[in-house]
Write a structure and sequence with these properties.
heterodimer; A: 287 residues; mainly alpha; MetI-like fold; two-stranded antiparallel sheet; 14 helices; 2 strands; globular; B: 296 residues; two-stranded antiparallel ribbon; 1% strand; flat
């Protein structure tokens, strides 16, 4: 009985794993390919020069990666994305942690309304934010700048920071606060000396989680960045050379190279924080 | 001393007002104005933009987008819910290689939606699958991804690929939160595994406020979905307004970048506000979940 149940379980999990891995593996595989389609049009086995080729066969090459790094300035995109994400997350932490502490520690009227208001940020159509910022940034000269992007990503990062950190503050046993209070520590001292050091692991998880969210964001970057502050996710789509707006043919091998390069740090980070992942994706609602 | 809780909120509230309330107010003014390349000064003119979007010139493309968005939201969230719960159940318990499977199955949460827009394209995974179907099986069949049924399925499955792991994690968290005694009691009473599932496991999942809350977030996010349908406008060559893959976000992006229109920022703000209003009405229903999840 139990054995049959386990067999079903493994069947489901193996299929699901295949389902998850297959597109990523295809992308990685294609990133090492070069499109030789124009050279052979028949199907089945063919020869290119003296080399045996199956149609659509693998022709391993690192040329896409060389192009990414040498010609298309991939490191620059990584730099842009990292600066934008880190500064945005830092601002969100500075303004968000006190609010998270307040949400977690005190009982007062209006807290529920504030929480709902924070969640309502999420219901705003991105264009209701983008269009005003587009106009204002144009006037202030913040269009296509790191500062501008760091500010607009607060829409994304502030709720993540506040609601996740609220959960981490709540996890600290009440007795610790009570002991500190009885020893005569003031509220500010308790927050700075006792609560904050205890939530540092959580804070690291929040930073990494918000970093991935910002790294992966596409729409704001599409509209508000240009040549100077283009982010990784934008670089992924434009296949480096703005092929769509330009006259270049869309090259899927290049797109897949970019996609693979963008995936690596995100996957590493998500696996690093997988213990806290459920808090991140549920905004601290589940542990 | 008892003012501290409010003082601590000031920085966050200020930022939320700047990045949330201010753009909304700006959009409201914009939606009531005439503003475009030809009229670069913002002039408040009344509700003509709303009339244009809901009943006038832009009505066909607006209602088309409403339908497309609704289809994607309902389809994607339904698939995610079912697949996520099944995966959560499969991962619950102690068995060999559990952490390996867990690590593999959470990977999609790291993947940028735009990457998936590329991966799910006819040229990346589907040409392999079609080659296999056509030559590999010898049946000579293939999936025509230009059929609406096919591309809607792919878009929905792509979204489910990204977000089913979220429901999986939530289900797993719920299952791990069920007190051990409940399972023991079921065992003592000689309940079969199906009866345990029906009387202990299934009710805890369905009644969980956290699952309700997360589903609400999913509906809200799917309602704003952009990247995957955006990529599909290119794969299908649908550059015109009112195409079958125009969600609200894609429609607004097309209005913003199309050279046919004179940069209709006021119309875009109007559509953005109407779509926000629709999803806010839905979110009101979710407030009771919200209050329960974050109470205490």
């Amino acid at each position: 009985m139990a054995k049959r149940k386990n067999r079903l379980r493994y069947l489901v999990l193996i299929f699901a794993s295949w389902w998850v891995i297959y597109p990523i593996a295809t992308s990685v595989q294609e990133s090492f390919e070069i499109d030789l389609g124009p050279l052979y049009s028949g199907r089945g086995v063919s020869f290119v020069g003296q080399f045996f080729q199956g149609t659509g066969g693998l022709m391993p090459t690192a040329i896409n990666y060389l192009q990414a790094f040498r010609i298309e300035a991939w490191p620059r995109l990584v730099f842009n994305s990292s600066i934008i994400a880190l500064s945005s997350v830092s601002i969100a932490l500075i303004v968000g942690i006190p609010a998270a502490y307040s949400f977690a520690m005190y009982k007062y009227r209006g807290k529920t309304i504030l929480t709902i208001g924070l969640l309502a940020l999420r219901t705003i159509s991105p264009f209701a934010v983008l269009v005003p910022f587009f106009i204002v940034y144009g006037q202030l000269g913040l269009f296509d700048t790191f500062q501008g992007m760091a500010i607009i990503y607060l829409v994304l990062n502030l709720p993540i920071v506040i609601l996740m950190m609220r959960g981490f503050f709540k996890d600290i046993p009440k007795e610790i606060y009570e002991a500190a209070f009885l020893s005569g520590a003031s509220d500010m001292t308790i927050m700075r000396r006792i609560a904050l050091p205890l939530v540092i692991p959580g804070m690291v998880a929040v930073v990494l989680f918000a970093f991935v969210a910002t790294w992966n964001e596409y729409l704001y970057a599409l509209i508000l960045t240009g040549a100077r502050s283009k982010t990784v996710s934008r670089g992924v789509w434009s296949g480096f050379g703005e092929s769509i707006q330009g006259f270049k043919i869309l090259d899927f091998d290049e797109l897949n190279t970019a996609g693979t390069l963008a995936l690596i740090p995100a996957i590493v980070i998500v696996l690093l924080v997988r213990k806290y992942l459920v808090r991140g994706v549920t905004l601290g609602a589940a542990k | 001393m008892n003012r501290l809780q409010y003082l601590l909120l000031i920085p966050a509230v200020t930022v939320a007002l700047v990045v949330g309330a201010y753009p909304i107010l700006f959009s409201i003014i914009l939606s009531l104005s005439e503003f475009s390349i030809t009229t670069p000064e913002i002039q408040v003119v009344g509700v003509q933009n709303y009339i244009s979007v809901l009943f006038g010139e832009l009505a066909p493309v607006f209602w088309n987008s409403a339908g497309v968005t609704l289809l994607i939201v309902v389809g994607a969230v339904a698939v995610e819910l079912v697949v996520g719960i099944i995966l959560g159940l499969a991962l619950f318990g102690n068995f060999r290689a559990r952490s390996l499977f867990y690590s593999i199955l959470v990977v999609p949460l790291a993947v940028a939606p735009i990457v998936l827009g590329i991966l799910s394209s006819p040229n990346v995974i589907w040409d392999d699958i079609n080659t296999l179907l056509f030559y590999g099986t010898g049946l000579g069949i293939s999936i025509d991804l230009f059929q609406p049924a096919a591309f809607y399925s792919v878009i929905i499955l792509a979204d489910a690929w990204l977000w089913a792991p979220l429901i999986m994690l939530v289900t797993l968290a719920i299952l791990q939160g069920i007190p051990k005694e409940h399972f023991e009691a079921a065992e003592i009473h000689g309940a079969s595994s199906w009866m345990t599932f029906r009387s202990v496991i299934f009710p805890s999942i369905i009644k969980s406020p956290v699952l309700g809350f997360v589903l609400t977030l999913r509906v809200i996010d799917a309602f704003k979905s952009f990247e995957i349908p955006f990529a599909w406008t290119f794969w299908l060559g649908q550059n015109d307004l009112g195409s079958p893959v125009d969600t609200f976000s894609v429609l607004m992006w097309k209005l913003l970048t199309s050279s046919v229109y004179d940069f209709p920022l006021a119309a875009i703000a109007t559509i953005a506000l109407i779509s926000t209003a629709i999803i806010l009405v839905f979110a009101v229903f979710a407030l009771r979940y919200t209050a329960r999840v974050y109470s205490d």
